[in-house]
Specification:
Elements (H helix, E strand, L loop, with lengths): L2 E7 L5 H14 L5 E6 L5 H5 L7 H10 L10 H10 L3 E2 L4 E4 L9 H15 L5 E6 L4 H4 L5 E9 L3 H16 L3 E10 L7 H4 L5 E6 L3 H9 L11 H14 L1
Parallel strand pairs: 1-5, 1-6, 2-4, 2-5, 6-7, 7-8
Antiparallel strand pairs: 3-4
Helix pairs in contact: 1-10
The structure holds adenosine-5'-diphosphate and magnesium ion.
């Protein structure tokens, strides 16, 4: 069984950044094989990971719905989709990536989500670690793509509004009965000590913080890959220290 890490949080809090750095650290610490899943329709995990994506789950489903004749006569549609999705897994250096993509037209998300959920169920035996970069906000969780994970990492800034959003995410996880063995709070772009009072009733275990890191910011501005982030970057080093609380 894979060890599944799901990253959640408000838009712009640093989900994609932290998902990318987690993939890098799991790889560099030689913890096992990794599948990164970009479950955000505004996907940009590939960019951070520095790989090209050929296809997404959405592009494959769009193709099949436009050209149903490509389904072989002796294969069911579901079986064909499953087979095709495997071709959407891009191989990086030391990890693989599956991207959900953006479905064309309204009302198609449910279908893409169903396919993603099924495929995730099937892939859990193929990798030691799965790292899922989720969509901002709560919509994705409400679509129940994620049913269970070993560690849910909620990323937040240290502002009262940010922390309230983190709390709402946790409440939704409870309401939807998503089974998360660990529910963790990671503060991003924050250095120093957070007052216990501010985080005590979020329902999340606080594991620490990642400071503002100019090197991360620079790579982001240049459109580069966080796989090239210097080893001495404070953000990377802080996450490495906290990593054990996430991945084990
Ligand atoms: N610790 C950090 N230090 C500096 N910049 C950061 C840090 N974390 C994230 N950023 C920047 O903040 C922006 C939003 O981060 P991103 O990971 O895309 O957020 P999300 O995926 O939650 O929308 C990006 O430009 C990213 O480079
Ligand atoms: Mg993102």
């Amino acid at each position: 069984m894979s060890y599944t890490i799901a990253i959640a949080g408000k838009g712009g809090t640093g989900k994609t950044t932290i998902a990318t750095l987690l993939v890098r650290l799991i790889k560099e610490n030689k913890l096992g094989s990794i599948l990164a899943i970009d479950a955000d329709p505004n996907s940009n995990l590939a960019e951070g990971l520095g790989i090209e994506i050929k296809e997404t789950i959405s592009s494959i489903l769009d193709d099949i719905s436009l050209h149903p004749e490509i389904i072989p006569k002796d294969m069911s549609k579901d079986r064909f989709i499953e087979y095709q999705i495997h071709t959407a897994i891009s191989e990086g250096d030391g990890f693989d990536l599956l991207t959900m993509g953006r479905p064309e037209g309204p009302g198609c998300y449910c279908y893409v989500n169903n396919v993603l959920r099924n495929i995730m169920g099937k892939l859990t035996n193929d990798y030691d670690y799965i790292v899922i970069d989720n969509e901002a906000g709560l919509e994705h969780l409400s679509r129940r793509t994620l049913r269970a994970c070993d560690a849910l990492v909620v990323i937040s800034d240290a502002t009262p509004a940010g922390l309230r959003a983190a709390k709402r995410i946790n409440l939704l996880v409870e309401e939807l009965k998503i089974k998360a063995k660990k529910r963790l709070l990671l503060l991003n772009r924050f250095a120093g000590k957070i007052e216990k009072e501010k985080i005590k009733d979020l329902g999340l275990d606080y594991i620490g913080s990642i400071p503002e890191d100019n090197l991360i910011q620079k790579i982001s501005l240049d459109g580069g890959s966080l796989m090239d982030l210097d080893n001495t970057a404070v953000g990377l080093q802080s996450l490495d220290k906290l990593g054990g609380k996430i991945w084990s």
